Amino acid sequence: MYFMILYVIFRQQGLKGIVTLLALLLMLVLSDQISTNIFKEGFERFRPSHEPALSGLVDLINGKKGGKYGFVSSHATNSFGLAIFSLLLFRKRWYSIFIIFWALLNSYSRIYMGLHYPGDILGGMILGSLIGWFVFWLYKKISRRFVITYAARDYSFQLSSVSPVIFTGILTIIIVFISSVLLLELM
């Protein structure tokens, strides 16, 4: 799905898509580094899988415990950063619905796996949304200064151009669901 997003950007923007790619990379680096190095190390809140009082109560998938600290969820931060940035970029209703659903599903999986508390996810959702919005705001400023077109100004992204991203994402969700059901039957 990530490659499809890049494909759509470069298909619509050509070489100008490099600036969009750099903005996406900035958003991902900020999301990852702020959630990991500032929040997790700053708050030092144990994950459910590392909490001594809960260690026997948490069901882990494949014994995966994750890192020691969990606030905020980096998966939620990265997912919502990408979701907000890309929905502001593409500005298509069906894409926006899909990408928010994808980010919610990705974030929920961290609770399901016993790696995060709901508050870790909520914090990551808020942090990622703010970072995604901020980087898009910065991207707009740079776009205007260097006369780079983006979706909000020239509406260059048509629904048909983002449809491959939606299709790939839905197909991925279906494949993961089917493989999860099959894996459960084998266990």
UniProtKB/TrEMBL annotation:
It comes from the Bacteria. The keyword Transmembrane applies. InterPro entries: PAP2/HPO, PAP2/HPO_sf. Gene3D superfamilies: Phosphatidic acid phosphatase type 2/haloperoxidase. Residues 20-136 form the Phosphatidic acid phosphatase type 2/haloperoxidase domain. The chain crosses the membrane at residues 69-90, 97-115, 121-139, 159-184. It holds the Pfam family PAP2. Keywords: Membrane, Transmembrane, Transmembrane helix. PANTHER family: AT30094P, SPHINGOSINE-1-PHOSPHATE PHOSPHOHYDROLASE. This is Undecaprenyl-diphosphatase. The lineage of its organism: Bacteria, Pseudomonadati, Bacteroidota, Bacteroidia, Marinilabiliales.
